[in-house]
Amino acid sequence: MEEPSKFERYVYKNASVYHYMKISLVLENGNQNITDAQFKQLIICGLRDLYGEVGASFPFDLLKFDQNELTGILRVYNSGLVKLWSALTLLGSYQNEACAFRVTQVSPFLLALSGNSRELRFGDQLIS
Amino acid sequence: MSPELEKCPRSLLVCEKSNFLNEKSRHDIHVSKHNFNYKISVLIPDCEALPANISSAFHSFSSYYLVRELPVYQLLEETFIESHVKKGNFYALSYNTKIDEENTIALLSSGQLILSLDKDTYEQLGLEGRPSLYNHKKAMRFVVTLDLTDKSLTPGTKRYQRVLSSLKDRLPLRYDFLLTKYNTGSDEDQTLIKLLSQYSYEEHKPAFSHHTLKNIPCPTLYPSDIQGKTLSCDPHHFLEWLGAVNLDISCENAADSFLSTYVCPEPQSSVSQALLCTVTGFISPENVFVLLQELRQYIDEPKFTPWISLTVHGFMDSPVSWGATEHGFLKGGENLYNFVCFKNQDYWLHMATGAQDGCPP
């Protein structure tokens, strides 16, 4: 058993290397069968269209993908957040069909994505 | 490529290390000052079944009420102040009001009523306040703080009459509110219900769920190394891993995988089972403290469990984070804290906030 430790306090400012985004894809004609690889490829194409090969050459991770809801969680380096977010905003079509990405939540902490108080809803609540 | 594109909002992470038995330990203050709690999650590695004392702690959480269209002046009514506000342990927060777009009202346990208002509402209401700390170039948001326990706001005084008439006649603000009171006696609940019965209200119990995770990689943590320099993993990586566990994200990806390269931080070990419990609702800090005590008792008993993690998420749209420190929503409104409890009653406390937040205490 270790001895009880003394008090220590550290403050980290902007020390999180990544930002995390919870997004969902909305298709005009309802859900299609999109795999996780196709979902990620769609985002990469959107990035390339907006920023070119060099501008889009930063990695991001698709940490989780729900095929039924077409929602995903992305992880991107801080320097790529603005580019990724803007590419998602301006992405308008998938296989010639109109679509839109909705960004539900963005945070420098992945843990914060698991507790979004804006999702607190009650039985008879209309989704606003 | 323009360097402006590579900027991102600032974030703060405060890491504290101490021992629960240390008399100067501030764990109780940190918990009690974080007024509005939305979700609590507990992760216990090497645990299969929900322990009885922890289950009963969760089920003893106080109910909360959702009141529709409650006029804000009602929170200043004399009987309300006497029977609830002055006694403390009473919390109220306007429901479904986005702090970056609309007005938000909050009542803290200390008796402070905080109104975070947009410019038009502030000017029409005519109460004394100050501009928000997080205004950009023009002041578009103002914060009015009323201390309902202060002598100058005792019912009957001129100032009280002025404030009451502003909220009642000049600009009657009405919002849906979430209310909760830490249970100390059932008769106090009755007076609250009598007040609420004039409006449409529902009582809710915080929603509890739990499940067991099998065969997961788990970071190794040593209480003495909170910064993750030698024996433990880095605090950011640890919190990221906790997020991955809560969100059911796979931690076993190859480094050259197309989809995700996320892996559990080193040093790590494999754990055959872990228990994850969550409870969501409008939860008072006193309930969190009771749960923390039960978790401390659980880990004190001889077990395989090396540490327990307790995560508490605040409300994104709350006008305050800890105490009366102003909180805002820029691209996110996170204000969360996480305890890691160890066997010798050592603990780590991580407090994380986003861009529009003061430094956690």
Which keywords apply here?
heterodimer; A: 128 residues; alpha+beta; 5-stranded antiparallel beta sheet; 34% strand; B: 361 residues; 8-stranded antiparallel beta sheet; globular; Rnp2-like_sf (chain A); ribonuclease P RNA binding (chain A); Pop5/Rpp14/Rnp2-like (chain A); Ribonuclease P protein subunit p14 (chain A); tRNA processing (chain A)
Give the topology:
The complex is a heterodimer of chains A (128) and B (361).
Chain A: E1 8-13, E2 18-27, H1 36-55, E3 60-66, E4 71-77, H2 81-90, E5 93-94, E6 97-107
Antiparallel strand pairs in A: 2-4, 2-6, 3-4, 5-6
Chain B: E1 12-19, H1 27-33, E2 37-45, H2 52-59, E3 64-71, H3 78-85, E4 90-94, E5 104-107, E6 112-118, H4 119-125, E7 130-131, E8 141-147, H5 158-170, E9 174-181, H6 186-196, E10 201-204, E11 207-219, H7 235-246, E12 268-283, H8 285-300, E13 307-314, E14 335-342, E15 346-353
Helix pairs in contact in B: 1-8, 2-8
GO molecular function, one term (chain A): ribonuclease P RNA binding
Protein name (chain A): Ribonuclease P protein subunit p14
Keywords (chain A): tRNA processing
Concise overview:
With 128 residues, chain A is of the alpha+beta class. Chain A contains two helices and six strands.
Describe the structure.
Chain B: InterPro entries: RNase_P_Rpp40. The complex is a heterodimer of chains A (128) and B (361). Chain A contains 2 helices and 6 strands. Chain A has a 5-stranded antiparallel β-sheet. In chain A, strand 3 and strand 4 form a beta hairpin. The longest helix of chain A is centred in the middle third of the chain and has 20 residues. Chain B is an alpha+beta fold and 361 residues long. Chain B has an 8-stranded antiparallel β-sheet with strand order 7-8-6-5-4-9-3-10. The radius of gyration of chain B is 22 Å and the shape is globular. The two termini of chain B are 38 Å apart.
